[in-house]
Amino acid sequence: MRSILLVAQVAPPSTLVAARRVAGFTKYLARLGHRVTVLTSSVSGDGPIEGAAEVVRTGDLMRTPLNWRRRHFRAFAGEESGGYVQPSVLERVIVPDVALATWLPYALPRALRLARERFDVVVTSAPPQSAHLVGLALKRGGLGWIADFRDGWRYEPHGAEWPAGLQRRLDAVLEERVVRGADAAVAVTEPIAEDLRRRFGARVEVITNGFDPEDPVGDGTSAWLDPTRISLVHTGRIEAARSSLAPLLAALRLLRAEHPASAEHLEVVLAGPLSADEERLVNAPDLRSSVRALGQLPRPEVLALQRAADWLLVITEGDRRKSVATGKLFEYLAAGRPVLVLGEGTEAARIAADAGRAVAVSAVDPRAIAECLHHVRESTAEPPSSGTVEQYSYPVLAARLGELIESVCDR
């Protein structure tokens, strides 16, 4: 048995996809016999995490009156109605991210106190990338450290490049210290892993996001869908991942103008919080018969909706960030439904194609998307083999992380 400190700002019961990675690792590492302590932020909510021997929830300025955007955060998390707004301007100021100011002052001292106990290894999961600074500090105290990269840092970053040269240099220094300082790194996709190996000579294992086969699911039907139409269902957030609904909506307009019969037999269903801009786009009068936004649904209903859909929809940023394979993709594969990926050439398209359940098209070309939608009724995809899907289950992924933890501890 290893004693593991898992550090992540976002954890259950948060509805964000990052929390499901923490949940999956914690639950199934514990079943392998390890003792897992989770250090997280109070912004994720309260309560136990299945499998965790202890859950330590620190303070976070995001939950205080100093955060003037609390309503935005609650809307982003799906905790209240109304669209969330654009990211804070502070995201273009604080290096490497806002959590350096809001969470790290709470998390780092608590982590140092916890480290006085007997831990074999610390696993830091990011973004926010400042979570890795906790691992950097504990490593100096002699603790083994694995840095888990759910996104690239300076490789295909979420936002635009830092506006000032000093910011760019500081960000680069922090990234290098983290990657070179960790005993091992984990990346969710191969392109992220290959970048870290190439630039830093780092030891990097690919452990993707995944699905929990024990998640409760409804009866496989959904009252939200029109049985007389072909349903394309997207679950989760779109703009929060820097993707855009605009090309898809433009494609629907083209479809209605050029292939009205196809448009009549098609519906796009969105389940998850929308931004204020997305709400405005979706509520356009000419799209009301083609697009329905359901808002945030309970998770069992989301999983049932996925299984009832004719097609499941992945929306990426296309060429801008080819390395991304969103967490929902693996839930889609577990649902056993065909997947339409807006973002040909992306890692999401490759993984879905390898599973045999995907059609991929440009994420930014409305005409190409419209042509794909026109033929979607005729498209077929072979069902994935159980082994193909099983490799993305959290019992398998946690076992791989456990092997890496054992290797780091042995060294």
Question: Which key features would you list for this structure?
Answer:
411 residues; alpha/beta; Rossmann fold; 2 domains; six-stranded parallel beta sheet; 16 helices; 13 strands; 38% helix; globular
Q: Any overview of this molecule?
A:
By secondary structure, this protein is of the alpha/beta class. The strands form two sheets. Strands 3-2-1-4-5-6-7 form a seven-stranded parallel β-sheet, with helices on both faces. The chain has a six-stranded parallel β-sheet with strand order 10-9-8-11-12-13, sandwiched between helices. The chain has helices at 17-31, 70-76, 99-102, 104-114, 132-140, 165-181, 190-200, 246-258, 260-264, 276-282, 299-308, 327-335, 347-354, 366-374, 386-390, 394-410; strands at 3-7, 35-41, 52-58, 121-126, 144-149, 184-187, 204-206, 230-235, 266-271, 291-295, 311-315, 339-342, 358-361. The chain folds into two domains: 3-210 and 393-410, Glycogen Phosphorylase B (Rossmann fold, 3-Layer(aba) Sandwich); 230-388, Rossmann fold. Helix 10 links the parallel strand 9 and strand 10.
